[in-house]
Amino acid sequence: MQTNLLQNMRQTIIDHHSLILPALRDIIIIALLGFVLAFILGTLIALVTTNPNQNIFSTIAKKFFAGYVLLIRGLPLTVQLLLWFFVIFPLVIGLRLPAFTVAIIVFTIDGSAYISETIRGAVQSVDKGQFEAGRAAGLTNFQTMRKIILPQAYRNSVPQFGNELIGMTKATSVLSFITITDITLAANLIIARTFEPITPYLLLGITYLVIVYFLTLIIKFFEKVVFVRGRKYNSRKRFV
Amino acid sequence: MGENIIRAKGLSKHFGDALVLDNVNLEVKKGERIAIIGASGSGKSTLLRCLNMLEKPTEGEIIFQNERLDQGDINKKRQKIGFVFQNFNLFANMNVIKNITLATLMQNKSLNKEVVNRKAMELLTKLGLEDKAYAWPDDLSGGQKQRVAIVRALMSDPEIMLFDEPTSALDPELVKEVLDVILELAQTGMTMVIVTHEMKFAKNLADRVVFVDKGKIAEEAHPNELFGNPKCERLKEFLSKVLD
């Protein structure tokens, strides 16, 4: 039976590769691109929310982004996708964007809310003395954040970033709500054709597991190599 | 000793409702070495931190080289005020040489990196730390960290050095190596203000000792006079507890 199952999976991939492969490609692009853009936007938001300045502009900006984070984290991703694709872009803004583009935008906005809070927490947990030493040396707030605080905050946050990336990848299973053929929809379409649910759903589960496994390897690579000192590829030149 | 390097005028500082500094006036002349002593919570560290605006005074002003410190480019002025923290505060995400050269390179993009590194190595060598240039803060002893912190503060050729209890976080056997460095620095004519609990050191180093009590300067004098013939009761009480 085991051999049959494996043979069935192999045959399913062969028979329906024109459905499966583009779906796989699309969800990987949306998840990865969404994560990268969310990371950038989340960092910018965190720079605002952790700014020690207490002038009126800073205060207003902080309150704005506090509301932004509350709103985004309060809405399920599916609801955000539906709102942006069917309501906000076409009816409010008057733009008919491709579903793929809308998906990336929504993943960026959603991810940025969580990532900004992760970074904010990590920044606030960096020893206050690090910030004071930077300022005492004549560095500006921005220079101190960029060169001293953020690198330390990022280092401490790699596991949470990994969680966010994995979460985004699995969240692609709801993209069919806005007409994108993700791999979950692909599995359902195969079932509609073949009337056999076991192989497609097993294949679907295995596909997600494999993707997450490779993402985990990438995250571990970042933990050891990019953000943590004492790495294998360290050299004097690299740091000076 | 000549012109004023730094001057605190009518300095007051509140933390919430607590008055930590109360109308303090302090002048530091070029080449002068001032030791600030006092009990814990007396306001001496707050006073020092106000001198480079790490704490923003509630009232009063800090004049650095005849200009108010809070006006104009404070970052440029801070480059000329070296600050050494009690807990070293080396940047945890970079090695020693990067710690030392970061601020110089960030502030002057036109400077040649090799030239800056060479200066850093010269300073490290003077302090016996040349073999630690590529070490990370975690690899250093407390005394080494503090010496690196001193080198970091010296990189921008400051006009004045401020030391906030530089040996308080050190094991006793490491204190001497840091105090020796500060004494050597003093002999080069560096203007300095040092908050310290090391009374013997204060006596050897300082031209003037300032005793801070409950946010005010209760007494200030030459160390021989202050330690030998204290005038205010609170200082007598303090010295009787801290001196052998």
Short description:
The complex is a heterodimer of chains A (240) and B (244). Chain A is an all-alpha fold.
Secondary structure: helix percent of chain B: 25-40%
DSSP strand tally of chain A: 0
Characterize the main sheet of chain A.
none
Q: Average pLDDT of chain A, to the nearest integer?
A: 90
- By helix and strand content of chain B, what is the structural category? alpha/beta
Shape of chain A, please? flat
Distance between the termini of chain B: 32 Å
Number of helices, where a helix is a run of at least 4 consecutive DSSP H or I residues of chain B? 9
Strand elements of chain B, count: 10
- H/E series of chain A: HHHHHHHHHH
SSE pattern of chain B: EEEHEEHEHHHEHEHEEHH
Radius of gyration over C-alpha positions of chain A, nearest whole angstrom: 22 Å
Largest sheet of chain B: 6 strands, mixed
Topology:
The complex is a heterodimer of chains A (240) and B (244).
Chain A: H1 2-15, H2 17-49, H3 56-74, H4 77-93, H5 99-125, H6 128-136, H7 141-171, H8 183-194, H9 198-226, H10 236-239
Chain B: E1 4-15, E2 18-29, E3 33-37, H1 44-50, E4 59-64, E5 67-68, H2 74-78, E6 81-84, H3 96-107, H4 113-126, H5 142-154, E7 160-164, H6 172-187, E8 191-195, H7 199-205, E9 208-213, E10 216-221, H8 223-228, H9 233-242
Parallel strand pairs in B: 3-8, 3-9, 6-7, 7-8
Antiparallel strand pairs in B: 1-2, 1-4, 4-5, 9-10
